[in-house]
Amino acid sequence: MRSFRIIFALLSFASSTAFATSIVAVMNNDEIVIGADSKTTLIQAGRGKGDPENITKCKIVQAGNLFFASAGSAGIGPAGAVDPEFDIRETIARGLLTGGGIDEKVGNLEKALVAGLTRIAEEARQDNAAFFLKSFVGQPVHTVIIGGLDNGELVLRVRTFSLIISPSGSLSFEIGRFACPGDCGTSFLTVFEGQTEAIRNYLQDHYFADPVTAVRDLVELEISKDPSSVGPPVDILRLTRKGVKWVQRKPLCPDIQTIPILLEGEAGANNP
Q1: CATH code (residue 13)
Q2: 9: left (phi over 0), alpha (psi -120 to 50) or beta
Q3: What is the pLDDT of residues 230-240, one digit of tens each?
Q4: Structural domains in the chain (count)
């Protein structure tokens, strides 16, 4: 029987100033399956005025031969960010489109994202202290899950960005790092971020033999738990050593670009 190497990361950030989202990724020896809900709740420019806006987003994004999903209180694009010029998803994608292997690409992502997050955190602190405390302090500001193939091996990389305020008041970011293979040393590992009590309880009594079923059911469980901030439909992407395909998606999610998942060092492996 195949065993899960990892069932990773339900991210649920419930914040009145940004949006909530639910992302689940499951990995075994043969595949990575990533699923995400579709609902995004925004309050324009972080001012806390006016009614929240609910919009539908495709939260699983292709960046060359890698794929990522992200969540956090800083927003996922111009409409949700404090700085309308700072697009988090675009910043992540640009980082992942440069460099050689996945760790170099993720390192570039880290540098770009820290620079942008530091800037908008400072802008938020200067503009609205209450908003800054709600959105940037005491919770991860942003988390990114990246999946793909590196040197012939399926890999997951996770980065969580948390704000640090020094005694002098300067801002910086602490980065939490998780890698699989590497940190997922057991045959079955569960790691959660955010508000996940319902899923934690559910997994105590349930075992999934199929990654797609696990991803779909866990995202739908979070939707049923908090439909005001997490909503259908569920998009699901499946990656293997042979390629990648949508298992299910809404029309907003684009077709997979015609780029095979290449081995590190193969011709074209670093090109978008």
Answers
A1: 3.60.20.10
A2: left
A3: 889 999 999 99
A4: 1
